[in-house]
Q: What sequence folds into this?
């Protein structure tokens, strides 16, 4: 036998050994093979280190090739010997301890290095990365039950590390720079579910947190200090912030390097005798950190080294999180994009969220949470580029529901579905049950099918399918039905159900509502987000964190946007009463900021129009200094309380209408409501404050106060109805706050009081306000809520809150043209 | 508008990706009017001239949902990727796309 060519592999990891296997598979006798590995052990499955850390597997479980494999295949292994140099002229690699080995062909599979953040204190004992078995052993040694671990990095590896440490009895916290976990693989909805699922497993998450320095005592880590945040005490700190291709050896040998070792489609480096694969490689500008592309590279390399054909053309990527009981899969354009459309499926009962992204009728990406069984199938569809239009309606239900429908028109496809095929995944209803129910019980409407079979009664995604089955069964007798008016196109649920379930199920965030109510879009739309934001802050005052990005611009900027993009500013004038000092301050502001228009409003206020957005905080600061606060003229909120002068001055006045108006406004200002709320208080039935066309009005009479509701003088003209009559001013305030709270808790977003009254009926409103217990409870809830909202938003912003809202991102281009 | 098609492009660092709120926008004033930079719920960023094709409303002030923004003046829904109105208003003009790159977490606006 002739002398065999010498093949040396630098790197005894997953890529190196897999490449050798691929070569041996094709030609077992061609090469005399030597492998150098820096780790003193045989080849193991690095991606299974997470289960080892979690104690779910042992090292022996994850060994891929044991010592016998090297011996059986005649491979020389230098384990624990790092290669220090490559002499390309002499074609020799120089290993540590003077082990030199000549090669004919060389494979670099040196992998990557974990990134260590250069934070103060990074050198302390107990600060580790998560890359190899040594790291795992260091973590396991530190993982005493009850001890605390902090993991910097909320990517795949960081989450797996935190989960593993938590399984070892530590309390683990993930600190992540971004506002969504695994943001490169997940969208915000799936990220939210992941945060919740981890919390249920004892792993806490701190998002949008920048690590500032690592604290230590006696040379050991004691905590992580966050910028603008708390210090998290810890006994172990894991940095899992990413990897960097290991290029030192190749660079020293003079190979072409960019981010990684540059290779062509045959995986050959700039030296024709040297190939490179795995995480150290940069191919077509792309570096990889996942295993699937590495397997594909190894196949190509196996061909290349045995005179075969084949080129590596890059890989599509998919990710699966390895945390027991938390099923997460992501692939391709999971975030959608131009020309893409989303199919979203949520099953709140099972905690499932699926988003399939289609582009040109083909699968372009997917995010699966809670049920990732079909991940591989979507990934296959994505890579094959097969058109999925024929089974689009069942696509989101997975492979089992969709196979057999290809190539058929939609109706025929439904007809061809087996009776045992599942139609409604939420309630486990198959086609046969639906068809039988329609026939046996003479069902003719979608609602009746829902009532009898539960099919499409939960998330509603299968509604078109159920309708098709109805149509197939009934022919022309079927007519599509509509249920309660949905909140918006993102859901088929109505406002009442949404509000009720937020309270009943304790839903306290937008993602929680969208998941529980099975929204069909990833993050809602401009219609539902402001509605849900209002429902949440009404249900959970003091508890819910207002989502600014779900507010219309006026409520975000606390001023009214005008047609030219400037804003109007309306300071509050309690009950329409002002003073020389206030008017002087307003005049000064107008001069100082060159405000073009000053106008008296219909609600007895002064409107400053044409204020530049950048000037708003400074304008407010000057108004605040004169004692004025926001008039909320921009909000779905309490606007104005219009009054007449009442007994103070008027010869006809019966009560102190001005005083009552001021008192009401000072108690109720700042409250958010479903739509704007305007009040009026008139001191006598001559009604100079026009209280009988306000949302809530008071008409004072000799014997007391008539409380009116449901007036309008805008799109519609409506006189009020009398709600109740009370004897004292206190009772008037109680009744007005109670009816305001009933409206706040019950109406649909954007529904004015008169529309709400038409819908629920004056009698229903009366019955609640006239009952002393209910009235008292409503008043108390209003008063409690006001503890959190009776705060001047202008003063908060003058003090610096939300400064980014008013400042441009950058002024560097002010003189440039784009 | 014409400047958009010139080749020699200068890239200017206008801030960090994280300076733009998630599901929000920031504006960058230029001599030719504001540019709006959007960041969507899935963390992607887009840049358009800050003027709705309908009545010139400042899109940077709208509600960002999916990969679209609702104009604050009349609620036209504008695609962030193309600047074109979506739905019923499709085909009625377009807010020009401004070249934007992300490098090491920084936003780079492309100028002619």
A:
């Amino acid at each position: 036998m002739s002398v065999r060519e010498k093949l040396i592999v630098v790197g005894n990891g997953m890529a190196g050994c897999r490449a050798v296997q691929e070569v041996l598979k094709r030609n077992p006798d061609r090469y005399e093979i030597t492998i150098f590995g820096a780790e003193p052990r045989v080849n193991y499955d690095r991606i299974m280190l997470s289960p080892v850390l979690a104690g779910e597997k042992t090292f022996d479980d994850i060994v891929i090739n044991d010592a016998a494999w090297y011996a059986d295949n005649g491979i020389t292994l230098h384990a624990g010997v790092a290669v220090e140099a490559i002499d390309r002229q002499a074609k020799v690699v120089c290993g540590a301890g003077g082990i030199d080995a000549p090669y004919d062909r060389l494979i670099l599979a040196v992998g990557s290095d974990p990134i260590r953040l250069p934070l103060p204190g990074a050198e302390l004992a107990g600060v580790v990365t998560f890359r190899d078995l040594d790291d795992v052993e260091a973590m396991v040694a530190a993982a005493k039950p009850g001890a605390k671990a902090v993991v910097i990095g909320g990517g795949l590896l960081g989450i797996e590390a935190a989960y593993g440490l938590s399984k070892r009895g530590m309390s683990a916290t993930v600190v992540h720079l971004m506002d969504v976990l695994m943001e490169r693989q997940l969208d915000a909805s799936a990220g939210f579910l992941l945060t919740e699922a981890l919390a249920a497993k004892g792993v806490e998450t701190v998002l949008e947190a920048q690590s500032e320095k690592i604290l230590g005592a006696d040379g050991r880590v004691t905590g992580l200090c966050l910028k603008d945040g708390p210090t998290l005490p810890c006994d172990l700190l894991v940095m899992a912030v990413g990897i960097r291709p290991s290029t030192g050896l190749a660079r020293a040998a003079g190979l072409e390097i960019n981010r990684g070792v540059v290779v062509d489609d045959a995986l050959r480096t700039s030296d024709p005798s040297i190939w490179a694969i795995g995480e150290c490689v940069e191919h077509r500008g792309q570096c990889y950190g996942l295993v699937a592309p590495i397997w594909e590279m190894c196949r190509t390399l196996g061909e290349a080294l045995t005179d075969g054909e084949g080129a590596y053309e890059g890989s599509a990527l998919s990710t699966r999180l390895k945390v027991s009981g938390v099923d997460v899969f992501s692939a391709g354009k999971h975030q959608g994009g131009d020309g893409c459309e989303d199919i979203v499926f949520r099953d709140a009962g099972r905690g499932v969220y699926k988003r399939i992204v289609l582009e040109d009728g083909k699968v372009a990406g997917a995010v699966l949470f809670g049920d990732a069984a079909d991940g591989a199938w979507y990934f296959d569809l994505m890579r094959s580029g097969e058109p999925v239009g024929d089974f689009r309606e069942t696509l989101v239900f997975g492979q089992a529901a969709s196979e057999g429908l290809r190539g058929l028109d939609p109706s025929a496809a439904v007809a061809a579905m087996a009776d045992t095929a599942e139609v409604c995944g939420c309630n486990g209803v198959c086609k046969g049950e639906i068809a039988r129910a329609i026939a046996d019980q003479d069902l003719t409407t979608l609602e009746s099918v829902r009532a009898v079979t539960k099919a499409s009664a939960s998330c509603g995604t299968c509604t078109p399918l159920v309708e098709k089955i109805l149509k197939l069964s009934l022919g022309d007798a079927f007519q599509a039905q509509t249920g309660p008016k949905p909140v918006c196109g993102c859901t088929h649920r109505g406002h009442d159900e949404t509000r009720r379930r937020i309270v009943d199920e304790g839903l306290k965030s937008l993602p929680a509502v969208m998941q529980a109510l099975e929204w069909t879009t990833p993050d809602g739309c401009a219609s539902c987000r402001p509605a849900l934001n209002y429902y949440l802050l009404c249900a959970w005052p003091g508890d819910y964190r207002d989502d600014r990005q779900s507010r219309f611009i006026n409520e975000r900027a606390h001023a009214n946007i005008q047609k030219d993009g400037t804003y109007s500013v309306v300071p509050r004038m309690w009950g329409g009463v002002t003073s020389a000092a206030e008017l002087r301050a307003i005049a000064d502001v107008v001069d100082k900021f060159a405000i073009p228009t000053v106008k008296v409003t219909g609600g007895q206020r002064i409107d400053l129009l044409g204020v530049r957005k950048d000037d708003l905080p400074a304008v407010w600061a000057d108004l605040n200094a004169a004692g004025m606060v926001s008039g909320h003229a921009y909000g779905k909120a309490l606007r104005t309380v219009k009054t007449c002068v009442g007994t103070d001055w008027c010869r006809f006045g019966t009560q102190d209408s001005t005083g009552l108006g001021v008192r009401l406004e000072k108690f109720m200002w700042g409250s958010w409501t479903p739509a704007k709320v305007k009040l009026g208080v008139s001191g006598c039935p001559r009604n100079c404050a026009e209280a009988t066309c306000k949302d809530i009005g008071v008409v004072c009479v000799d014997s007391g106060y008539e409380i009116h509701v449901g007036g309008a003088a805008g799109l519609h003209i409506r006189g009020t109805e009398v709600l109740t009559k009370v004897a004292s001013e206190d009772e008037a305030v109680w009744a007005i706050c109670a009816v305001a709270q009933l409206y706040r808790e019950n109406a649909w977003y954007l529904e004015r009081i008169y529309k709400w009254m038409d819908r629920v009926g004056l009698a229903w409103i009366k019955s609640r306000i006239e009952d002393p217990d209910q009235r008292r409870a409503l008043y108390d809830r209003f008063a409690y809520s006001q503890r959190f909202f009776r705060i001047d938003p202008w003063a908060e912003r003058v003090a610096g809150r939300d400064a980014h809202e008013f400042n441009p991102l950058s002024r560097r281009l002010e003189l440039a043209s784009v | 508008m014409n400047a958009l098609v010139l080749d020699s492009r200068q890239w200017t660092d206008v801030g960090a990706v994280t300076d733009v709120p998630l599901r929000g926008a920031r504006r960058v004033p230029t001599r030719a009017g504001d540019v709006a930079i959007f960041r969507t719920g899935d963390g992607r960023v887009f840049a358009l001239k800050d003027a709705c094709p309908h009545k010139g409303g400042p899109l940077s002030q709208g509600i960002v949902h999916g990969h679209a923004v609702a104009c604050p003046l009349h609620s036209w829904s504008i695609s962030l990727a193309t600047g074109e109105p979506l739905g019923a208003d499709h085909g009625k003009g377009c807010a020009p796309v401004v070249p934007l790159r992300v490098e090491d977490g920084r936003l780079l606006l492309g100028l002619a």
